[in-house]
Amino acid sequence: MSNFLFDEFNPTSAKAWKQKIQVDLKGADYNNSLLWHTDESIIVKPFYTKEDRNNTAINLPKKGFNICQTIFIDDEKIANSLAIEALQRGANSIQFKASKTFDYKTVLNTINTEKTIIYFKFSFLNADFQIELCNYCSSKNTFFQTDIIGNLAEKGNWFTNLKEDHNQLEKILSSSENCISISSELYQNSGATITQQLAYTLAHANEYLNHFDGAIADKIHFNFAVGSNYFFEIAKLRAFRILWESLLNEYGLKDVEAHILTQPSLSNKTLYDYNTNMLRTTSECMSAILGGSNTISNVSYDEIYHKSNEFGERIARNQLLILQQESYLSEAQNFADGAYYIDSITNQLAQNALTLFKLIEKSGGFLKQLKAGIIQKKISESAIKEEEKFNTKEIVLLGTNLQVNSADKMKSELELYPFVKQRHIKTLITPIVRKRLSETVEKQRLDNE
User: Fold this and answer.
1) Count of domains observed in the chain
2) pLDDT-derived band of residue 53, with 50, 70 and 90 as boundaries?
3) Closest CA to 154 of 119, 185, 197
4) From its phi and psi, is residue 59 left (phi > 0), alpha (psi between -120 and 50) or beta?
5) Which of 292, 348, 362, 434 is least enclosed, having the fewest CB within 10 Å?
6) Cβ-count burial of 424 within 10 angstroms (0-12 exposed, 13-18 middle, 19+ buried)?
7) Tell me, what CATH number does 43's domain have?
8) What is the mean pLDDT of residues 184-191?
9) How would you classify the pairing of strands 43-44 and 36-37?
10) What whole-number percentage of the chain has pLDDT above 90?
């Protein structure tokens, strides 16, 4: 293609642009007026040029994203029916959640495990059952979201104890593929900054690499959550791939792609004016797509207060189908390549997270800091800052802390308890607690209905 049109214009340097902006500011300070200092210690500029590009190659998926439907196994036949229906209506991936062992032949009846990507997330640890299930499925397309460290971080206790949990996991590792999942979504939903999410996820994964040897790296995959900071969430996922590749290089490993399952955050979802949750999840799914997620499982607009229902699940799935098939994002994993702004944020996030990761490792590693309560304290501090911004409306959730509809009533709609539940059990460590930003405001509104 000819460049003759562009040959008529002389290139303008970043310095010249800045000088022109300074003149137009008529004496106002450039740094104070136009630079945005984020909680990630990143300075966002008013303009970007090719000088801000970073030429680091990112190992993105070679094909587009998978659409996943999440199904809880209570009744095996119902779970199977829901999965088949979801696959017939556009999903090509299923995430099954279970709190106890189940009849997997009934759950997977007529589902082609050679072609369907399946995730299993258990809130229990049973190596024999998991190995048996793995042998029944296609190892290539089946992912077990087993995370004994993530369970400790979330619940404050091991499944059994440190030794037994590691023995069970070692048994699983020896007999199955794709069997360790790093629960990064826990850090996002509990209020961690993006830099913390990246560093903690990397350090979390490194605990497994250290304990079981780096050779298990190809059996590890990741579960991220994305929030509403659109460009930063795109950059977050891209930055993590850079960090993961960098870490594996230290183990002498190459060509091990980070497999990422992404879900919208629940921390910014609201009980009142709940339809705005659809807007939030649409934006968040776009971040997940452009960030290069392998699989995306959307959450329904009524996830926090309704039991799973056909309407909510259909809307959530259709949001992804519209983005994939009608918005030309079916092969969008490389769309952000060459975007100066995203490149700059990606590089800065990766650098900041790497610095924090090194500090964690220098202090004895992620598990040691988790047991000492340091990780929990840092996340809590970040969550408190976020809540303060919500209370001062620096962070806006429409219909909750801005443009509130006082006629909106929700007490009769609650099928699920939408707030943090108080746990009265003894724990080894302080658990990391998921919490939504709007909980305090919503409790007050419910009390006043």
Assistant:
1) 1
2) confident
3) 185
4) beta
5) 362
6) exposed
7) 3.20.20.240
8) 98
9) antiparallel
10) 88
CA R_g for the chain: 23
Q: Which domain holds residue 83?
A: 1-449
Q: How confident is the model at residue 8 (pLDDT cuts 50, 70, 90)?
A: confident
Closest by CA to 274, choosing from 70, 69, 447, 442, is 442
